[in-house]
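Q: Make up one entry.
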Amino acid sequence: MLPIVDKPLIQYAVEEAIDAGVTKLIFITGATKRAIADHFDSDAELERALKRSGKDKILEQIQHIVPKGVTCIYIRQGEPLGLGHAVLCARPAVGDEPFYVHLADDLIDGEPPCLSQMAAEYERHGGSIVAVEPVPKENTSSYGIVAVDPARDNQLLEIVEKPAPEQAPSNLGVVGRYLLDSAIFDKLENIGEGAGGEIQLTDGIAQLLKEQPVHAYAFKGERYDCGSKIGYLKATVAYGLNHRDIGDDFREHLKTLVC
C-alpha cells in the first residue's frame, strides 16, 4: 500500500494486470491486513461528499480504481509460509487456467507494461514464463537465478533459489512477474519446505520444467525494487518527474537541490 506519487503500489499492479486482459484479480493477503480490500471497495459516503464539493476529477479517479467487468477476490494466507504457499492459496479461484503472479513491490515501468509483454510472448510460444533481468553477481543470493538455452527461446535449464555467487548458474535473476501453467499447483502441493522453511515458488518451477517448457523473458523497461529504501526513492523520483500534473514543477525543485 506504499504510495508512489499519488497511487499505492497495489494500484499500479492492478492497472498493469488489467492492461494485460485480466478480469479476475486474486489478492493473497495476511490474516490481519484489510487495507488492500478497503482500497478497492466502494465508499458511497465519500463519493457523495466529493460530488457535493464539486471535486469531479477526484470522484472519477476513485470510481475507476477497478473498472466495471473486473472482479476482486480476497484470500487470506493464514501463515507466512512463502511465495509458493501464497500462490497455492489461489488454486480454488484460479482453477485450470494459466495465470499471472504479480509482486507489487517490483514496480516495472515498461511500454507496453510488463505483463502485456509476457502475454505476447506466451502467444508466440506458449509454456510458463518468468521475467528476468541481469543482477550483480554479488547479489545472486537475493534472487531466484536461472540458466537458459538461448537456442530454444531462452528455455530454462535450471532455476535455483537464492544461490551464493560462486554457486549461481548465471546472473539472470527472476523478478516479480510470472505467467504460469496451472500444473504448478500440483508441484507446490508436493515439494514440501524449501529455503527458510517455506514453500518456495522457485522449487515448484524447478519441478515443472522437468515436464514442460518454462521460458525466461527479459522484459523491456525499468524495474524499481520498492521493497528496498533506495528502490522506493528511485521510483518516487522517476514517477514524479513523469507525472503529468506535477512533473515540471518537481523537476524544477530537484534542480535547486543538486549542487
